[in-house]
Protein 1
Amino acid sequence: MLTVRGITKTFGTLVANDAVNLTIGTGEIHALLGENGAGKSTLVKMLYGALAPNSGEINWQDSPVQITSPAYARKLGIGMVFQHFSLFDALNVAENVALALPKDQSLKEVSRNLSKISREYGLPLDPTAQIADLSVGERQRVEIVRCLLADPKLIIMDEPTSVLTPQEAETLFVTLEKLRDEGRSILYISHKLDEVRALCDTATILRHGKVVAHCDPRETSKAELARLMVGTSVADVKTSTKQQTEAETVLAAKNLSLPTDSQFGTALHNISFSLKAGTIGAIAGIAGNGQNELFSALTGEASLGEASSLEIFGKPSGQTDVNQRRKMGLAFVAEERLGHGAAPNMSMSENVLLTRATISEELRSIFGLKRSSADKIREEICDDFDVRRGSKNPPAGSLSGGNLQKFVIGRELGSKPKIIVINQPTWGVDAGAARHIRQTLIDSAEAGMAVLIISQDLDEIFEVADEIAVLHEGSLSPFVQAATVTRESLGLLMGGEGFEQSNTGVQHATHA
Amino acid sequence: MPLTLERRVAPSKLMMFASPVIAIILTLIAGAIILLFLGKDPANGLYVFFVEPLTQAWSLEEILVKTIPLALIAAGLTICFTANVWNIGAEGQFILGAIAGATIPVLLPDLQGPHTLPLMMMLGFMGGMFFALIPALFKVRFGANEILTSLMLVYVAELILDYFVRGPWRDPAGLNFPKTIDFNEWASMPIIGADRLNIGLYIAIAVAFILLFFMGRTFQGFGIKLAGQAPKAAKFAGFSRDKTVYLVLALSGGLAGLAGIIEVAGPINQLRPAISPGYGFTAIIVAFLGRLNPVGALIAAFILSITYIGAENAQIFLKITNKITSVFQGILLFFVLACDTLIYYRLRLKARMNEVRS
């Protein structure tokens, strides 16, 4: 159906795609595998007409084409479901879908077609529902239905399961298989090897912009796929075997509530938990269920109404600010590395100052900030965490996602905190760096640090956590021992089962 | 053959310094073209405008006299703009500083001694500061855009000054001219030059270096930079957005007010309806030409004051209007901002034409 030959795309000196070949047959689910930064998105954007290749040719149904725009791609029969949804929160489902269609259809027609498609493919949707009220999984359905309305022959899906519970993912796979059986092709981008092996017929693996292998994922072992993606084999994280029972509680939330500050944020309702020294607690949940709100309540960026709703080392601390908490021995790693955890245009040394200037004595003197000490700390972090950079002190924004995350985590651990709160520790980080980060967290906990991670990645959670809780629509389930829960039971909790209905009721009332 | 802009991997260090120089050269070229259209010899015109002021002692001193207010106001604006807060009303804060400082020589003319001038300067700083805190309050409380509020307050300030010099503060012995009494000896800036250059120059230089230290070496200065570049990161580092808005507007307003009182206690020596040829607005150009660096602004202030003296020269020798100053200043700001693009982007000729979007 689609063949790509020798396609190359460069950005300045960076070669994002280097003579890439790709063949997608009719009625197959083709996996595009690769780490972050391997060039998957670049390739896909060229297929969808959002980028123009420097050289190489694209053949669509045996004739050469130049895909000059997404509109033209859609006309050819190529549809795409993006990882980040482009939906308007304030409009309803039908209105959002109609926006992407030719103007000659009335809203009523759109609604009718939409209902028909959503029934046919097992993607239940209410055309009149407001986007803001929909779960992430439902929003993805809107994107898929919108794509299907154009009757595409090739559907490109960018990491579709990254926002779904395991159960929702299963439902999606059924839909995808139905689409395949109709003779449509799917280009499935992912780095989750299990689902690729379960779902896909063929796979193309990219590394550093080059195709390193075409293979049949069903016939290839998971370890082999990982090795192809990363280039070297990735060792497993060593988990500790010790049992912490007598440790003191260092961080505790007691009926912590936080109203949302924006129309589409998530309010937190009566969150209670306690975390002991030397343990790793993980908070699972699908994106947009209050993770960022919880993180800002813990950092102090959002002030709590009651000082007693957050206790740090037994002291009511709900109204202390972020630097007071840092001085008490807390450290924080934000999900958004560029712009929140680090300033993209500032040098690495200046980014050391960002969180360390108030707590590290050596960074201050009577003549002001000591930049030489910041340089020293920068070098220490880069050595300890193997941070790769283009020059000695480049802007933080020039580091790759994995290297920046290692730098940020190294910066926080460097202050020898007693408690560390991390939102999405390895989101968008390559496998090698992710392993390093997880191992560091486990070792730190072994040394007595309390670690709280907020993560959407169940693999990661099962790899590192001692205790697990689930965040759903701003409410938190009780923490349970990691060894006693299964992926399925977590999936159900992430989907909201087992939470009291009253909480979700409040949630919808605030949106209405 | 289309030209395209391509984002650089890292901002260009070379362009950071070259951009204002290129902007000045482009301004000179544009100036030559304008002079050509006015029927004047461009070479001679540019010489009269930009070089001759530098060749004579009196005009050099006059350039320095005008450098003082420009440098002081621009120093504060660099900090404001660095924080991404757009104080366009320095002209008004300058006037309010002048009025506040003038209360002592006008209302308490007997308060004379070594403390008089420092007291006036303190009042001047505070006058400008409070006037700048009005847009700060509106921005924080109601989300009002400070560009509009600070700009509109300029006209308010001008009318307040007008009221005082024509009304309650008018010099009874002034033959009904709209002006206050002359400031007494203790309330005047000590002269360090041959004619009108006063110690304000030292103050402007000191302020520039103090602010350079503040921005480069203190955590608070770092927080202001962060607030401008990455507001969420600034909050993560413990800086409240609201406090930053108050701080930078108070500081830039205060320095504009200080410039105001130095101007009226110096070269003017009294209050009258017009005390500034638009220093508060020109200082915006100075701040950008000086790379939003307080010491850079000091140098840029010197360059911009040449255009004031140059325009007077041009009026006398070339018989063209001195409004040409504003034209040159506007062109310069245009080119400075345009050239700054080159710091983050490079120009590329597109070799292939197949990227036309439908």
Note: Confidence is low (pLDDT under 50) at residues 502-512 of chain A.
Protein 2
Amino acid sequence: MDCFVFEAAGKHLGIEARYIYRIADEVRVAPVPLLPSCHVGIIYYRGDLFDVIDVGRLLGKEGRLSDKPSYVILMKWDQRKLGLIPERIAGITWVEDAKATDTVFTKDGLAIHMITPEKIWDTLSELPYGH
Amino acid sequence: MDIDKYKRIFIQESGKYLQDLNTDLIRGEHDLLNRSLWSDIHGKIHSIKGMARALNLDAVSGLCHSLEGWCKEFQGGTMTPNADAVQVLMDGAELLKGLVAATAEGTAPEASPQLDRISALLAQRPDKLIPQTQPDTHPVSSPSKIDHIRVEYSLIEELLARSQEIILLEKTLPPLSQEQISSGLRGWIDHYMAMLRGLHFQLARLRLMPVQDFVSLFDKPVRDLARNYHREVRLEMVGGELQVDIGLMERLREPFMHLLRNAIAHGIELPDERERSGKSREGKIVFEADKRGDSLVLTVSDDGRGIDQTAIQRYLRGTMGMSDQEISGMPREEFLHTILRVDYSSADATNQLAGRGIGMDVIAKAIQYLSGSLAIQSEPLEGTQFVIKLPLSLSIVYAIVFKIGPYTLSVPTSHVASIERAEATSAEQGGDLYDLWDRLGIHPGTRKSTHILKLRQPPAIDDSIPTEPPPSRFAVDAVIGNMPLMVMPSGELLARAGSFAGVGIMENGDLSILLDMEKL
């Protein structure tokens, strides 16, 4: 399958490419209070609102972010919409069909940790809100 | 009661029925013995009669009454329709259309020769009609004016997306030279962009639909369900002219289907049982839409047997391990909300038959997603009422937009009583000043407090439920302005914070988070 690869928290992460809706640049994220620190805010893109998540922070990395990230990876699936801020976008690569939680290796020996939007959503759902 | 408002609703809704009536009667002419069709025709005339009676429009309700007499007989098979009888009904429907139009202009006559002629004909048996000063030709109706078209909702979405992309193009505009600026190009571009933003706002209004159209989607399912469960059920609508976001209603489609299914399967009793309890054989489900403040309040009520409270008690005892004393000490609202628990329906097989547990958690989740709230009222033998209060959905509202710390926030203008400069009000000493910085977790070092927003207290929906009054005054760093916002539901994650009424999009494309002051 085609796999979209990006870097965050010092890791290469891969998402099945069919989940990727757009890569938005030049967007301004509106910060929202009372949300977990990895939730950077929201953006309005082509008629939809996307929650924007700093993947590094979601994975436990600390640090301050700009409210003008270079890129936001937009995903749409079922009725959900999520934007991910990576540290760097690596590109699309082909990997043999892999289970969602597997680590796969490219021909060059690069380790890619596969993640799914549902898994990210589940992790987000477990965080505290409203404080 | 605002009679004019109800008259407008009557004209709008009966217009729709009359339009369908013509089509049905033409079908009836070719399918005289189709009793289900006569039942539909009867239902439409009956609905117009009901509304006309409520407004004391005697000529309209009288004519409807005469027309439905025949339809009832055709529907029941006690009389057989013929072409002449259908013609009389068509003439009657045409006359009805004229009376409704005259009502709109405030000139509805109480009597006319045509009304007398049709009434005299309808007083006879349809199979033994004696013409009454029969006209040479029957009125030939003209096709109605085309004032509506149907479009796919996805087209509207695409148009909105496209218009936003065009607006976003401004960000890629190369820097203008001094010469270009002096030639007026900058002014021209600004004007052009302002026009585009206005267009985008108008396009957004295409997403609004009358609630009546939403409720009409359930006419057939309600009829089918009633037939399957051997119930007699009538679905009524109040406030159908309210315009709401189609995206919001789409999300409520499944939950409402659950509500109606439960009302018919478990709420409304069998006709004989209803009769024994002194009720009419026909059960009634009323769908009411209302705007209170800036909330949309949707109420679904039925006059059935009410929620089975013994089933709830059984669940609380069996599954939740509660004692009888604990159960009786539960607040009423909390007790009834038990039916919203995920495992309520599967807790006990008898609940499936006796209670209202099927899929109620689906409704609760959908409402939570939309940042709404649900109140349940139910009395044994009297019926059940679900009151769904939804925050501002996609629509254009005016709001006071302000900055506080790094956040751009807003409250609907209608909630704001006044805005004062902070230094003029000795803000820091105000005892009732709500500390929004603290609530939102903003570092106090950045506090500027330039203005104080004083809020109106919103009307309580249900006085019987004691609630904390929302904050009445709070300070902000800067007021951006009073401006129209296109408001969208805030989504699942923001809803978890439980403090937002939606997300507002400003004309320049920037976002502002609408605070729900009642929930902060």
Note: The longest helix of chain A spans residues 117-125.
